[in-house]
Amino acid sequence: MESQGKSNRQLQRALCYSDVERTHTASPSVIVIGGGTAGIAAARALHDASFRVVLLESRERIGGRVHTDYSFGFPVDLGASWLHGVCKENPLAPVIGRLGLPLYRTSGDNSVLYDHDLESYALFDMDGNQVPQELVSKVGETFESILKQTDVIRQEFSEDMSISLAISIVFERRPDLRLEGLAHKVLQWYLCRMEGWFAADADTISLKCWDQEELLPGGHGLMVRGYLPVINTLAKGLDIRLGHRVTKIVRRYNGVKVTVEDGRTFIADAAIVAVPLGVLKSNCIEFEPRLPEWKEEAINDLGVGIENKIILHFEKVFWPNVEFLGVVAETSYECSYFLNLHKATGHSVLVYMPAGQLARDVEKMSDEAAANFAFMQLKRILPNASAPIQYRVSHWGTDKNSLGSYSYDTVGKPHDLYERLRIPVDNLFFAGEATSTEYPGSVHGAYSTGLMAAEDCRMRVLERYGELDLFQPVMGEENPISIPLLISRM
Ligand SMILES: Cc1cc2nc3c(=O)[nH]c(=O)nc-3n(C[C@H](O)[C@H](O)[C@H](O)COP(=O)(O)OP(=O)(O)OC[C@H]3O[C@@H](n4cnc5c(N)ncnc54)[C@H](O)[C@@H]3O)c2cc1C
């Protein structure tokens, strides 16, 4: 107890950086900026490796783009909700397994609809007529053939182009793949789902890079009790300062000085920058000296898409017992998609998920108008639908703590931008979904980059200290006991 008390006192002293001269009598210190998955993972790893860590988070909550809302009396995710890759290789599997958090699998591997397959769905046209299942499956196959043909175009053209341009070239060459009438509308719906995956419109997605991310095996599973328990577990015992918006980062050969909005400063040996790409793009954090040109270019060139969620809570379920409902239309912009959470959670909730330009347009509305807009889409297909009793609306595009939902490859830019975003600059390390070459735009990707940044930081700081052997590696020491994931589908 005494030694614990002593080390706690040491910790308190060490973390009170404000305008205090730092000495090297205690263990090395790190400031982590951003309390999303990546920042928390980095802070956890360095804390466990006996570093003194303080985490500065601008919001009054942790989790970032993991945001489980409890205002309905049960958990609903306004940000991430799927574990992409329900398998033991998923870096988050040990913690999810240990917590016994159930997953509801919505698709297996290699579905053309990514996180869904066509096992349980209902698509309707704008007049409320259900599209025959046979037609949906057939158009799904055509969509796959079209995507295969776009690969031929990719090989042929040295210049990059958008996915939508590549599809129009495919149609010129293969008129048999061009669909008419209802089939065309269903095809647009598939495109709408693809746009949802990238949170971007097809005319901005790079043909060269769209399929370069790695998908873990095991398909996609919804976190039935929400993602937040994972974050809360990782954050236990960390020194997290909420409401600390970082505005300036100064780096010198012997340390970093970080300033927050109210002028307070924090000093440490190194810093891990784990804020969203959208925030870096907005230049609301000043770097002194400026970040090198290659880093600034990577920040500017990588795309950030927008996907939002409009959560509609109804008194009772009046919709078909399927995993998702879709509305097909002339253009992908007009198509829509509702996730039926009742299947996975038992709660009478539908989640409307607009992406790309539609998400941007809906975000301009008041919450009430946005919820009404989503409800009107539902009324098209289920005219007797009763109005929701509660709703929640996300604003990932305009929230100044995110300024976008997740990153994607835009036309004409190289895929190595993710890696360039990750590469450290002196004693500044970078983490976050947009620094993950393998799994961008995901929670497990963000988590891995947090661990990677922590390990890079540990190596660099301890090399300087010359005490490398004293500290444990922060990676490669997963809990040796592997607890299987709890997976269901009803
Ligand atoms: C609608 C939506 C649905 C998604 N669905 C899924 C899904 O189903 N599965 C999946 O795997 N992924 C999904 N994602 C992506 C996933 O949520 C992200 O990839 C991941 O959570 C990003 O983690 P991060 O740590 O990189 O960033 P964040 O979680 O955004 O963390 C960054 C933190 O930095 C803070 N911050 C910002 N500015 C400052 C500042 N100036 N000073 C201090 N702190 C600051 C922010 O408040 C935030 O807490 C989804 C995202 C969205 C938006």
UniProtKB/TrEMBL annotation:
Gene3D superfamilies per UniProt: 3.90.660.10, FAD/NAD(P)-binding domain
UniProt protein name: Polyamine oxidase 2
Pfam family, any one: Amino_oxidase
Keywords: Oxidoreductase
Biological processes annotated in GO: polyamine catabolic process
Binding-site residues for FAD, renumbered to this chain: 246
Family: Belongs to the flavin monoamine oxidase family.
Species of provenance: Forsythia ovata
GO MF: polyamine oxidase activity
Associated pathway: Amine and polyamine degradation; spermine degradation
Upper taxonomic lineage: Eukaryota, Viridiplantae, Streptophyta, Embryophyta, Tracheophyta
Positions with a binding annotation for substrate: 352
Annotated Amine oxidase domain residues: 38-457
Domain of life: Eukaryota
Cofactor: FAD
